[in-house]
Amino acid sequence: MQHLDDATRTELEAAAFRRLLTHLDAHKEVQNIDLMILADFCRNCLSKWLVAAAEERGAELDYEAAREYVYGMPYAEWKQQHQQPATPEQQAAFEARQAEKRQAGETS
User: Fold this and answer.
1) What single string gives the DSSP state of each residue in 37-72?
2) What is the architecture, at CATH level 2, of domain 6-107?
């Protein structure tokens, strides 16, 4: 992608991000905890990254507005309709993932 100009690269990145949001929206069965276990990010992380990007550019974007954009609806509504309680197996896998990150941080 280095051969692309900045504007084109930004447009492609934005299009890929929008496609990621569409993909996540089509797969509401994939819980945030599953994303955190497998990829170390979730929909909330995307929301926080949007807020951070806005702040870096001097734009105002609050976290709840960012979450509504990422989730496609108010977070409370999405949570009520689609979020399942984490299973003991998911919680254990998440804790194991966090322990691995802590250990990697200690040895790095």
Assistant:
1) HHHS--HHHHHHHHHHHHHHTT----HHHHHHHHHS
2) Orthogonal Bundle (1.10)
